[in-house]
Amino acid sequence: MKSLAIGLIGTGYMGKCHALAWNAVASVFGDVPRPRLAMLAEASQDLAERKARELGFERATGDWRKLVNDPEIDVVSITTPNAFHPEMAIAALEAGKHVWCEKPMATKLADAERMLAAAQASGKVAALGYNYIQNPAMRLIRRLLDKGQIGDVSHVRIEMDEDFMADPEELFYWKSEASSGHGALDDFGVHALSLTSVLFGDVSRVCCHMAKPYKDRPVKSGGRRPVETYDIASVLIELKNGASGLVALNRSAWGRKGRIFVQIFGSKGTIVFDQERMNEVQVYAADGARETQGFRTILIGPQHPPYDKFIPAPGHGLGFNDLKVIECRELMRRIAGEAAHLITFEDGIRIERIVDAMAKSAHEGRWMEM
Ligand SMILES: NC(=O)c1ccc[n+]([C@@H]2O[C@H](COP(=O)([O-])OP(=O)(O)OC[C@H]3O[C@@H](n4cnc5c(N)ncnc54)[C@H](O)[C@@H]3O)[C@@H](O)[C@H]2O)c1
């Protein structure tokens, strides 16, 4: 595996997360060559230079096009707001780079389809930032389901709630603009669908309702601006495997900080996971004496790979940024031509098609077949 030269576009919340992952991946796993942090692009030259110093990148530019066209760069991490993803990803793929683009792929299905076409034409690896599927806890859940631990799954419920938009006086920013997509569906719904896709496979139909808790938000320069996106979505889903499901999303949910509450109900038991307690899986087995039945909490540790690559001791816990390190290693394996647990543009387009159907369902007030 050759050492890869990395270009990073954007250094906000996710940009830092990608930078930490590129910095850590070789040290954590020991089986991939250390990437070279070659170049970083930000919205201005000054900001790019400051962030390059902080995050350990060799060169900085205020023009992302220079980065994607730089002959030295092998992989481009795209961590800018949603509306930039298509233009940046397509330009990077056309310049012959591998791409690691944050979710959602795009804010319009037609743009996501163009991104997929560019990836297929390039022959390069194009992956999406779906870190939650990388949690060793999720991998354990998948193994438990495969082993039939809770029997036939009849119902799946996924709730994703955060409160970063709960305050009606929070300033208007890009996530309230229609150019960022539909709202909770693109922000959170795609994550929920990344989990259903790796745990259960395809969705067959959806019925969605979307809501705006606040009609406008204050603008920094004064006055208020109408909110163009829907911070709440409630979706009935049917999976191709026959199970029914409910996906409930709210980014204005006071008190919920990073909740992804997954409940999987089967004929022999139930599995529960909550991202706010991301090192635990709860399993209820409907066997043995009824009087001693109850949920059992499994604490994720070195026996749940790749936790062991981070920490040899049990009980110490992985964190959100570690999921990105795992994703980064999977991406590097895929680039090296090895099998990898990753949501590529080919897989991600199915998520985009479902989100598009959910939004249409909400606007038209009916079920949409996939
Ligand atoms: N995978 C996850 O769990 C997860 C979590 C949060 C956000 N995201 C995704 O990451 C993306 C970014 O979200 P964020 O919360 O990091 O946003 P952010 O606002 O914190 O950061 C965006 C960055 O992009 C930079 N930027 C804007 N325009 C640019 C340009 N033309 N050239 C270069 N840089 C530019 C901004 O200056 C900023 O540093 C979004 O698509 C979001 O959906 C994913």
List the helices and strands and how they pair.
Layout: E1 5-9, H1 13-29, E2 36-41, H2 45-55, E3 59-61, H3 64-68, E4 75-78, H4 85-94, E5 98-102, H5 109-122, E6 126-129, H6 136-146, E7 153-161, H7 184-200, E8 203-211, E9 216-218, E10 224-226, E11 232-239, E12 244-250, E13 259-266, E14 269-274, E15 280-285, E16 295-299, H8 307-310, H9 320-335, H10 345-364, E17 368-369
Parallel strand pairs: 1-2, 1-4, 2-3, 4-5, 5-6, 7-12
Antiparallel strand pairs: 7-13, 8-11, 8-17, 9-10, 11-12, 13-14, 14-15, 15-16
Helix pairs in contact: 1-9, 4-5, 5-10, 7-10
The chain binds nicotinamide-adenine-dinucleotide.
How many DSSP H or I helices? 10
Could you give the count of β-strands? Answer: 17
* DSSP helix fraction: 25-40%
Mean pLDDT: 97
Largest sheet: 9 strands, mixed
Distance between the termini: 39 Å
Small-molecule binders: nicotinamide-adenine-dinucleotide
Low-confidence stretches: none
| Structural class estimated from helices and strands | alpha/beta
- Strands ordered across the widest β-sheet: 16-15-14-13-7-12-11-8-17
- Rough outline: globular
Percent in strands: 25-35%
Order of helices and strands: EHEHEHEHEHEHEHEEEEEEEEEHHHE
What would you call the quaternary organization? single chain
Q: Tell me the radius of gyration.
A: 21 Å
Description:
This protein is α/β, with parallel strands linked by helices and 370 residues long. Helix content is 34%, strand content 25%. It contains ten helices and 17 strands. The protein has helices spanning 13-29, 45-55, 64-68, 85-94, 109-122, 136-146, 184-200, 307-310, 320-335, 345-364; strands at residues 5-9, 36-41, 59-61, 75-78, 98-102, 126-129, 153-161, 203-211, 216-218, 224-226, 232-239, 244-250, 259-266, 269-274, 280-285, 295-299, 368-369. It has a nine-stranded mixed beta sheet. Strands 3-2-1-4-5-6 form a six-stranded parallel beta sheet, with helices on both faces. Strand 14 and strand 15 (280-285) form a beta hairpin. Helix 7 (184-200) packs across helix 10 (345-364). It is globular. The model has no long low-confidence stretch (mean pLDDT 97). Nicotinamide-adenine-dinucleotide binds next to helix 1.
